[in-house]
């Protein structure tokens, strides 16, 4: 089958959060073909280049979201009225929580597909007047009502960037119209091409979220004004609800993400948790080796930033040192990008020097600090596995966490862990480690002391943790899960490609297995729908009543909550032809 992989700020670029698991997915499912449609986020990302692509990647099409697009031709009077109507529906839904967000979104998409020029229209005086009118409507939130012209300009600019995928040339029969399935690697902007592919061609949409985009937008307020933050949050909430409503299957990476999706309107029947796949082989030498690490050493591994709360960890380690003077703490990681990350690392170093002055065993010995800061690739930790091999207990002190990657790596290494109860930590640990409340140095210190003083308990927890990680968090289980989901989706949305795209090769699921059984297996008795033909939630065929109700619909329009029985039928309807 042919899959359109939709990415935002990641694969196939060498930098980005989703590049690793996307690369493993594409390489692991070598029996499938992939077309990659990527949105890039910065000039630095494009300058860093791309990863080496396997042969099953047929084509790569990219679009930058960080550049200024070429200004389109201004709309004429009729198109300006169409734009004002559709953008008015979208703005009214964002400002007042109305139900017309989808109508406005798809109306803008159809206008852009026919005429282009959305970039110019969203930054026009017409757009500002429409937005101002929506913000002043009765019943609108007071924060939104307080928005001024600078707020309207800022929000219009942000919306233009978020809706920029609507202006791309990806929505043709030989692009997204030719794929069998769209797999969005994130919600929000990354899933917009998938929404339009379903709208225009009936392509089923699969959405994977390992970090909830809506939550990220809520946390990333920056220095924007309160009205702009409120408008932007409402826009992304409405977009998330539409993505979740149109997706045939949604695959959160953990229960924490799943709860966010359900609160945003995702149907629980369409949710399937698929844990991220991680390479266990690189940690096998540590996990299967006889060395259990230095029994007096605590290890922390990760990106150094305020969300990891190393300040609480250092204060907790001060309590540990009072009880166990020989204890050592190794902090392994690089600061987060930007000046804030470097400043936080400097602050942590200064606090460590203040809490733990250099100590010497004698009058003529050189003093040393019990807290060491290292980076992967340095002389002390040439490889990531070496960081975990150096200690007997691995600590996670975060106050904000999604899926705790460093915790799973420690589990692969067979190490006992002490973690704070944030994000998906409890779900990942599953009883194989100690969990304490966040921002509680005393509780963190007590848990560390309990494991440092009990080697047998450390060994039991480490063995259980490794067994759990090998069962749930490997690349193999991740690939098996997505392979099954791909086949499930395509089996309920059979594809009959147009003759010009037919290569003559056999196509899986083009015909049901029963069609190869000799004889008339449908004869006799009343008409019966076999179990394999039962509608899939959100993508099944319409009933006769629904078909009759929609008989007067515009050709090519896909009715809400329904997808044509076959992709070719949907394409034929879009051309005004009958299905074959």
Task: Please give a structural write-up.
The protein is α/β, with parallel strands linked by helices and 580 residues long. The chain is globular.
Low-confidence stretches: 521-528, 539-580
Count of individual helical segments:
23
* Helix and strand composition category: alpha/beta
The major β-sheet equals: 6 strands, parallel
What is the 3D shape? Answer: globular
What's the topology here?
Elements: E1 2-8, H1 19-28, E2 33-40, H2 43-47, E3 57-64, H3 77-96, H4 101-115, H5 118-122, H6 125-135, H7 142-145, H8 149-162, E4 181-184, H9 192-201, E5 205-209, H10 213-219, H11 226-246, E6 249-252, H12 255-263, H13 284-287, E7 294-301, H14 310-323, E8 328-332, H15 339-355, E9 371-374, H16 384-389, E10 391-396, H17 405-412, E11 416-420, H18 425-429, E12 434-436, H19 441-452, H20 455-472, H21 475-492, H22 544-549, H23 567-574
Parallel strand pairs: 1-2, 1-4, 2-3, 4-5, 5-6, 7-8, 7-10, 8-9, 10-11, 11-12
Helix pairs in contact: 3-4, 3-6, 6-8, 8-11, 10-11, 14-15, 14-19, 17-20
What's the short story on this structure?
With 580 residues, this protein is α/β, with parallel strands linked by helices. It has 23 helices and 12 strands.
Search tags:
580 residues, alpha/beta, 6-stranded parallel sheet, 23 helices, disordered C terminus
């Amino acid at each position: 089958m042919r899959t359109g992989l939709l990415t935002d700020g990641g694969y196939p670029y060498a930098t980005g959060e989703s590049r690793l698991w996307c690369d493993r997915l594409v390489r692991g499912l070598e029996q499938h073909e992939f077309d990659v449609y990527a949105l890039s986020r910065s000039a630095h990302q494009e300058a860093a280049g791309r990863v080496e692509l396997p042969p099953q990647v047929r084509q790569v099409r990219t679009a930058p979201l960080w550049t200024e697009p070429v200004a389109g031709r201004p709309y004429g009077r009729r198109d300006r009225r169409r734009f004002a109507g559709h953008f008015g529906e979208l703005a009214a839904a964002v400002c007042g929580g109305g139900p017309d967000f989808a109508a406005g979104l798809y109306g803008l998409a159809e206008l852009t597909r026919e005429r282009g020029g959305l970039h110019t229209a969203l930054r026009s005086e017409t757009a500002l007047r429409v937005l101002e009118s929506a913000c002043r409507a009765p019943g609108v939130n007071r924060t939104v009502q307080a928005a001024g012209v600078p707020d309207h300009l800022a929000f219009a600019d942000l919306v233009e960037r978020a809706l920029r995928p609507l202006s791309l040339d990806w929505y043709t029969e030989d692009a997204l119209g030719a794929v069998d399935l769209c797999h969005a690697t994130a919600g929000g902007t990354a899933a917009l091409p998938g929404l339009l592919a379903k709208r225009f061609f009936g392509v089923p949409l699969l959405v994977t979220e390992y970090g909830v985009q809506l939550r990220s937008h809520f946390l990333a307020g920056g220095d924007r004004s309160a009205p702009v933050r409120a408008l932007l949050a409402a826009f992304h909430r409405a977009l998330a609800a539409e993505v979740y409503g149109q997706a045939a299957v949604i695959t959160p990476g953990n229960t924490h993400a799943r709860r966010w999706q359900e609160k945003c309107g995702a149907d629980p029947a369409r949710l399937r948790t698929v844990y991220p796949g991680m390479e266990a082989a690189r940690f096998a030498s540590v996990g299967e080796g006889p060395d259990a690490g230095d029994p007096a050493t605590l290890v922390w591994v990760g990106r150094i930033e305020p969300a990891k709360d190393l300040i609480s960890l250092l204060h907790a380690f001060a309590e540990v040192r009072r009880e166990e003077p020989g204890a050592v703490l190794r902090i392994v990681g690089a600061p987060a990008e930007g000046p804030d990350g470097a400043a936080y690392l400097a602050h942590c170093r200064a606090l460590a020097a203040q809490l733990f002055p250099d100590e010497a065993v004698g009058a003529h010995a050189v003093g040393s600090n019990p807290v060491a800061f290292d980076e992967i690739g340095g002389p002390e930790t040439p490889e990531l596995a070496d960081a975990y091999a150096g200690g007997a207990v691995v600590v996670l002190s975060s106050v904000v966490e999604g899926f705790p990657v460093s915790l799973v790596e420690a589990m692969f290494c067979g190490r006992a862990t002490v973690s704070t109860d944030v994000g998906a930590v409890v779900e990942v640990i599953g009883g194989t480690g100690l969990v304490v409340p966040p921002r509680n140095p005393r509780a963190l210190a007590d848990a560390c002391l309990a494991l440092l003083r009990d080697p047998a308990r450390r060994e039991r927890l480490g063995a259980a943790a490794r067994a759990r990680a090998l069962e749930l968090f490997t690349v193999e289980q991740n690939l098996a899960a997505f392979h099954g989901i791909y086949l499930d989706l395509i089996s309920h949305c059979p594809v009959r490609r147009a003759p010009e795209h037919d290569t003559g090769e056999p196509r899986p699921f083009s015909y049901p297995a029963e069609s190869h059984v000799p004889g008339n297996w449908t004869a006799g008795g009343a008409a019966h729908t076999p179990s394999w033909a039962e509608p899939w939630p959100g993508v099944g065929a319409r009933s006769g009543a629904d078909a009759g109700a929609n008989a007067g619909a515009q050709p090519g329009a896909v009715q809400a909550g329904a997808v044509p029985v076959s992709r070719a039928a949907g394409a034929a309807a879009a051309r005004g032809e009958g299905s074959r």
